[in-house]
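Task 17 of the worksheet. Students: predict the tertiary structure of the chain below and write it out as structure tokens. Keep your answer in the requested format; marks are given for formatting as well as content.
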Amino acid sequence: MGLAIDVGLFQFEDLEPEAGPAARRVEMPDGQVYILRPVGGGADDGAPASPRDAPALPTGFKDLGPASTPDPYDPRVQLAAINALLSVRGLPTHDEPKDVPPFAPSGLDGFPYSFLHTLRRVMALHRLQPGQPIEPMRLDDDDYTMLDAFCDDPAARRCHLVLHADNCGYYFPIDIDEVVSDHDPRLDSSSEAGTGDGDEAGGGVDDVDDEIIEGGFLGSSLRLAEELREIAPLIGIALDGETVPPEVIAENERLVRAGEDGTWFRERTVWLTLYEAALHSSRHRAAIVFC
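Model answer:
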């Protein structure tokens, strides 16, 4: 398993529901309730199928009836919920474009999670020990003590590269200083921020904050690009303004093919993919999606 990165996953034209059995709320044997969307089964004339067309549930599962709430995994629902959270906190919201040019990185659009950690380690060392030399992480080294220490530092709230889930979540092209988290200790149900537009989106702060953001953290692709430019010289990347010169890309391709220990091939691979994603996100006003 590894991390894949894309830009602009909210493609609304692909999200229209097809004819078929209606979505239903189902209680699992462990008590958890999920929305079940059966596949197919529509009548020939395109009308929704009747309940008897829905497949029988396994033993121990309880049918709670038609789903009256939106599917939380629908990107439109996620976007609306995150925007409600941003609005409650007085932060800019995001309008995702319907059509986004495909993201085609010059390097890899996916890599092992461990690659991502090596670049985050560089940022952690840079922030905790500014001015100190940093060496590439050895292939047999799994010491992330400094990265863990930085994540526990309040300063990490302003580091969009580091404070983000490994395998899921988003970066929006919005201008925010701090990473947004689902559960902000500075806000509670007594906060006046829960009134106004936030109430219309689903109630007070507690209602809006209930695991809205996949992965728990929402970053800014604008800040991500700035942070990547900040650490570029530390891993041997010399930019031409904000542009990555072709020779840098070619050199990284050589390093990846060689896979030599003691080189920056992992850190630079992640850097290039994230930086190009951040630029694509900024140009087209679209979200970066970790998946």
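Marker's comment: The chain has eight helices and nine strands. The first helix runs from residue 75 to 88.
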